Amino acid sequence: MAVPPFHWWRTVFFLIPAIAVYTIVLGTLSLFSILIDRQGHLAHRCARAWAWLILKTTGVTVDVSGLDALPRDVPYLFLSNHQSIYDIPVLFWHLPYQLRILAKASLGKFPFLGGHLRRSGHVLVDRSNPGQSTMQSIKELMRQRVSLIVFPEGTRSADGKVARFRGGIVMLAIEAGLPIVPVAVEGTRHVMLKDRLMTCPGHVRMRVGHPVSTEGYELSQARELAGIIERKVRQDVEAMQALSS
């Protein structure tokens, strides 16, 4: 029987306990913050601190490009590719906006993390039955003018290739008049491979594209617009992969 590599031992006996402590402490602070800030702005600060601690503890560095050209006073729908669960701390720490995520309902079952997500305005979705309430929650976030992060591939990529983007969330962005920003993330899959309990230090690249206005688009064109964003993200991911090879 082969002895597990060093990073497996590091993950199990150091990273998992450390991240559990971060989640408990900051999740508790987040829950209490809702008592004085119903909009979830303080809770989002807790989430950003949680993300920073995870990246620092794991040893993940991130090179960000394109963010300087993005105005700060406008809410956006950020559409990103999805390589790893580490995409979430990367995006939360490096996107300086009030962010909410559209995530799978199973995350709501995690102690502290689930409570933070439910009470601070994030949208947890049962993929088998998203329901009208989910759509209403998304529309309400858009009306509040906070930015939303969505992984429109629907699942993590095991090989780093960008899969087809779903058009449903784009339809809601068209309804709300919310500009869409393509975000390409490359390298997080090497930090933690899909379905593998081991994390490794690593370098991640993130490219933030120019906002794409939804004005002038009809709801029937949501699939077309999703395809435009998908191609931009795929091009950026492939360009960053070429730099790494």
Structure description:
- With 245 residues, the chain is α/β, with parallel strands linked by helices.
- The protein has one domain: Glycerol-3-phosphate (1)-acyltransferase.
- Helix content is 45%, strand content 15%.
- The chain is built from eight helices and seven strands.
- Strands 1-7-6-2-5-3-4 form a seven-stranded mixed beta sheet, sandwiched between helices.
- Helix 4 (113-119) links the parallel strand 3 and strand 4.
- Helix 1 packs antiparallel against helix 2 and helix 2 packs across helix 3 (87-94).
- The longest helix is centred in the N-terminal third of the chain and has 28 residues, at 6-33.
- The protein is globular.
The CATH class is Alpha Beta
Q: How many discrete structural domains?
A: 1
Q: Biggest sheet, in brief?
A: 7 strands, mixed
By CATH, the architecture is named 3-Layer(aba) Sandwich
Supply database-style keywords:
245 residues; Glycerol-3-phosphate (1)-acyltransferase; 7-stranded mixed beta sheet; 45% helix; globular
